[in-house]
Amino acid sequence: MAHLVVLRHLWVLRRNRPYWLIVNGVFEPLLYLLSIGVGIGQLVTLPPGSGPPGTTYAAFVAPAMLATAAMNGAFNEAMGGFWFRLRFEKVYQSMLTTPMGVTDLVLGEVWAITLRATAAATCFLAVITAFGLVQSWWAVLAVPAVVLITFAFAGAGLFIATAVKEFHHHQYVQLVMLPMFLFATTFYPLSVYAKPLRILVTALPLYQSTELLRGLALGDVGPGLAWAAVYLTAMGAVGVWLANRRLPEILRD
Questions:
Q1: What is the dihedral of CA 244, 245, 251, 253, to 10 degrees?
Q2: For a surface tag, which of 42, 92, 118, 153 has the fewest beta carbons within 10 Å of its beta carbon?
Q3: Three-class DSSP labels, 82-137
Q4: 234 contact partners, CB below 8 Å, separation of at least 6
């Protein structure tokens, strides 16, 4: 019955200006791309090994902005919409008076968040493609890759949302999200870090997301992309499992 949760969210979205979903998913990463990737990029020379020969700085940054758009779309919806429905609107208590179970709620929320975040991120993919920043036919796999990334952050976001009790606690989440955005090779390659720090950076989910999309967009395909896919799949699955275990306790309060 998880699909009923998805249908409920689509119905609400249809009534509440769905075009804002696309605007929010495209506007912010596009500003970063134009100001840093294109603007400052005129002054930047990529170090060797940052991509195939001839890769421009804008083409290097664009997939990272796509990964960020997917991450923010999924995580903001989990920490925003899901959290408010859980803590204030009490929507899920009403749903549980039907034959629907907690697992149906969790799976339905993950699917709905993944669908909405993927729609927004895919619009940004169309933008960077129109700008000529996609350099390989491997990029046709970027859409399923975006689905995987949004699933990973949706699962993690649902679990974290079940642990956040007060509104002001959201700022602690941002204390993790913002540094990850800045340092997960979004604007410069992994080679700029000292070797001990590279292990920490490669453990970041945004790094794995960026590597997956950057490899597909630039045609730099290798075993590392398979590892990134496994990492993100595991992250989403674990997040869903933990959220499914936490949610019954919260709904009983």
A1: -160
A2: 42
A3: HHHHHHHHCHHHHHCCCCCCHHHHHHHHHHHHHHHHHHHHHHHHHHHHHCCCCCCH
A4: none
Exposure string for 145-160, b = 16+ CB within 10 A, e = fewer: bbbbbbbbbbbbbbbb
Could you tell me how far CA 16 lies from the centroid of its own chain? Answer: 22
Compute the distance between CA of residue 214 and CA of residue 59 in angstroms, rounded to an integer.
Answer: 9
Q: What is the pLDDT along the chain (253 residues), one digit of tens a residue?
A: 777 776 776 776 666 555 555 666 676 677 767 776 666 667 667 777 677 777 788 888 889 989 998 898 888 888 888 888 888 777 788 787 888 888 888 898 899 888 888 888 888 888 888 888 888 888 889 999 999 999 999 999 999 988 888 777 778 888 888 889 989 988 888 888 888 899 999 999 999 999 999 999 988 888 889 999 999 999 999 999 999 988 888 877 6
Residues spanned by the domain of 35? 2-252
Q: What is the pTM of this model?
A: 0.88
Residues 158 and 241: their CA atoms lie apart, in Å, by 10
Residue 49: φ, ψ to 5°: 90, 0
Closest CA to 33 of 72, 62, 3: 62
